[in-house]
User: Fold these one by one.
Assistant:
Number 1:
Amino acid sequence: MLNASAGNLSLEPIEQPVWLPGEEALYSFWRLDGSLGTVHPARVVTDDGDQLLCWVLDGTPIRTTTSPDGRSYREMPLFERFNGPRVPARSTWRGTSTLRLVYEHRWVSVWWFFEPDGTFRNWYVNLEVPLGRDEYGVRRVDGVLDVEVFPDGTWSWKDEHELAAAMAAGRFDRWHLKQLRAEGERMIALAEARLFPFDGTYCDAVPDPKWALPSLPDGLLRL
């Protein structure tokens, strides 16, 4: 688990927590080598231990990683995105708030994106390796490959061009890729059939206006 105050890190699982509506939970992206990447603090809508529904609010402070000279992931050439040293940095989730459904035991989370005026824009199928929970939140490994789904039921794979570089750098192997792609294909079938989560559910959702922005524990910037 993560001791946010001291910055100590343990990968040992703990008794699975469940969060109440309005509580804060950390949506953390780890790497298979045990290092920590991006962390998005979120506000919980519902959680039953199997499915966590939460908001990452516009303006939320987040942890990201950059190259030692301060370049972000997207500012690096492809060959460098999955290689080389990284340093933690504080950033901000900007644009619009996103609603996220995190499946505890499946290799996917689904994100609802909205326009600044609150109009639903599209779904983003974030393919991930599930790593369970710690006392602070859910832990995932980003699978690089994703699927974008639009309100009319059309869809497209995302970031396929990054897969070879990620695998060459050892981020995951062919077995992981097989599971990730299979999960993506399963979600595409749901989208084409207009079944949950692509049936319009939550497309009119709004975060509770009384919520304050979640906090980012200082200890995360020392890991």
Number 2:
Amino acid sequence: MQFSLWLALAGAGALISFTPGAGAINTMSNSLNAGFRRSIWGILGQQAALVVHVLIVALGVGVLVASSPVAFNVIRYAGAAYLVYLGVRQFLSKPAAAQEQAATLRSEPAWSIFRRGFWVNLLNPKAIVFFLAFTPQFIRPEQPLFTQYAVLTATIVVIDILVMWFFFAAAARSFQRVTSTERGQLVLSRVFGVLFVGVGILLALIH
């Protein structure tokens, strides 16, 4: 993977990780209820599910690349359009009710925290669709696929761990106060909506 493409991957990965979602809410809940240090188990569970999603997408896209590069490019551009769609939808979204915090005890076993994080990410069908749109933007069909997917997965996992633990878990209380207000939710929706649209357009142009 070329360094310029890897930088785009790292930037897109950071944007995805910073976007509030089920994983971020689960991490904040774990940090508040089980403590900052033990919240890492939930984050690792979420990464395990992320790896499963990438493997599912990689196997399907790998077959597609081997059989039809034209079809691969069609999916790549459709993926960029999907990112733009996500951005527009998030930009236009209305404030939602405050998320209910999970009743987690500080004595909860690490495996239980890990397992909950795993299922939070795995049981999200939109994640597979998203990675199907996201992954082809950084894969070059003419180069070895295994190494590219390994770099992509490792980059996304490391960035997501850092963001989840040192941003969402560490700043759980203050960040949660922002997202609990309608104004805070509106601001975040507008900002991340514009960023998603920008990333989708850039990825369609620079690959």
Number 3:
Amino acid sequence: MPKVSEDHLAARRSEILDGARRCFAEYGYDGATVRRLEETTGLSRGAIFHHFKDKDGLFLALAHEDAMRMADVAANQGLVQVMRDMLAQPDQFNWLGTRLEIARRLRTDPEFARAWSQRSAELTEATINRLERQKSAGRLRDDLPTEVLVGYLDLVLDGLIARIASGHAGENLSAVLDLVEESVRRRD
């Protein structure tokens, strides 16, 4: 049997993730059955699960891929820019609406919660590091601990995700993000 190149495997994995993103966005986490994943990706379950252990593994790989992309933006431009990117390209992030569904699993499934936490750690770490740098440069409020600012921005991020997922990403959300950004800036 001929060997498959690493480039081919990486391309197939990326193809599966792209299809899974669409499937999770359309049907939600629970509704994205293996059959629907097969239909959306155009691949067999064998091909899909050759790359991913199971549906959770596929979902968590997708979460990790997006968390890494968002962490890069957060590290260089801040978490508010991540949110602006979500508004500019909601189709790239609409699968995150499944967070509403998986919140239940985060409360009831410790193994899933641990794996999810590991996948989102990069974004949290990048956000903390960026906020600390901005504080040191005198650009951010210094009357609040960094952990409070992170919690605040995470809360806004979750709300934005819920808005995008429900189809209510109206024009005023950009102005809301301006307000959020202004609220964490240092006041002279």
Number 4:
Amino acid sequence: MSGLAAVLFDMDGTLVDTEVLWWETTGEVADRLGHRIGPADAPEVVGRAVADTAAHLVRVTGGADAGAVADELTQGFFRRVAAGAPVRPGAQRLLTALEAQGVPFALVSASPRVVVDQVVGGALAHVPFAFTLSADDTARTKPHPDPYRVAAGRLGFEPGECVAVEDSPDGAASAEAAGCPVLVVPSLLEVPGSAARTFAASLEEVTPRLLRGLRRTAG
């Protein structure tokens, strides 16, 4: 019915306002390790997988076990998400419009499975995702292209037929490397521009028609 085969949504900072919760969690763990996080840490925290952030904290503090730090980050983030993860403005309206028009959509996240399931069972309950992908479901997560390649394949499409919606530099890089046209709705970090990226200030500006236009342009 249209040139738009499917939409692949990031979760944290895109559909739900959890990037702040992740920053708070990282700050709490960093404090315990004797490091106060600031703007210089943001590229290693925002939009990054747990293992990447844990490795960064080990580098800047020294002596900690990366696995233990990753576990602490996951548990702290889960507790915050379980207490409430607000849906981003415009997200529910867009998801409802895509469903009404028969456009399939999936969730592609760099968060651990336990966190994805908590959000999908809470803030995003009753949203009819075709499936969800977490950091645990591919050999490499964002910024590598694996998550978006796998997601497009599971839907039966090429990545270039699927628009990815992202908020972070690593997420946008992952989708672009996979071959997806990318709609960027920034949250905490500025995302560099590229030929494959279109920007919107909020999901409140985004419609299925806009996403179809991205598909035609990229195609």
